[in-house]
Specification:
This protein is α+β, with helices and mostly antiparallel strands and about 375 residues long. It is built from 16 helices and 20 strands. This is FAD-binding domain-containing protein.
Amino acid sequence: MEDSVSKGRLRVLIVGFGIAGATLAALLSQRGIHPAVIERADKGESEGYVLGLYPLGSRVLYGLNMHRRYRDISTKMERYVLHDPSGKILKEFPLDSINERYGDIRGVDRKLMLSLLRSGVPEENVFYNTTIQHIQNNDQNVIVTFSDGSTQMFDLVVGADGIHSEVRALLLSRNEFSYRPTGWGAWGLWRSLEGFDRSTYREVWADGWFVGLYPVQERLAVFIGGNKKMLADYTPAQYATMLQERIEAGILHSALQSLEGLEDSFFWNMEDCRSSLWSRNRVVLLGDAAAAFLPTAGIGASMAMDSAAVLADELSRTDALHLSGAITKYVARQRIKTERAQNNSRFLAFLMFKQAAATVQIRNSIVRKCSLNSLLKNIVRIMN
């Protein structure tokens, strides 16, 4: 690891090789800063589910010369359709207002997206099955102790290790970050895309349950979930069958047939996390480690990539002696913007996560009158 970071003018360690960490590592590698990257998982371990990317995040790929390949592995979304609990269309939201003004919203398999981003990082700089045990952090450097007992000195450590960040737990006291649980969760499943619209996201939010359909190339991602107390009584297969019985014949009903991955499906615990501090001395947080998102607006990965680009920009214009100024500027540029987007996700969760049928009816009558821009008010403001 020491050899890999000694090539650059800044000795940077990135903890976590997900969307945020891989984006930052690729950008820094391109700019002559050769970070070491550690990842707790195996190299071949499954890398998650599905992403929706706004142009706010995907524009970073132009600078990495990856945007054309990104378009090849992703699918343009042209509309978002909300259904009522019976499966009938409640309202259709065309995405033209965003796609034409800012760039396409696209759906992509997270595993393919990670593979693309990671292709910009030299393999010899990445160390799998590795975690951090201890951080000695001061104004001059950071001394890191790894899971194998070895230690190394860095100019900067970036915690990009997700919502349950080990770096954040070592950096901040427990009252400096907080989780916000919703009490809801969901399973992520797959099925064939044949017979389904390739450019439409579909969701139904009902009294204590929901279904979401998200096309990505040749597969359809199917999200089924609800109140976790209710989910505890079902396997994914049983829950899919129960939901199919509730929904009338139609596209949502059909999507719950022939599901794949029921035995080892990904479960998403719907909570978010916000850190009151993003940095301390020579350690900085990025992506979900700084602010983790609910999936309700589909903006989390985009904000992580945008933040990675800003951090790379600031690091490319400094040296080890003046690193604190670059960190301060990164936080100043990104924290308020990110929290506004997170607030938008929380607002949509407030609308969506309803337990009573009467409340769902009231919510649906309100949504019928809403525009896409009003539902995504903070996100549109950020893109502007």
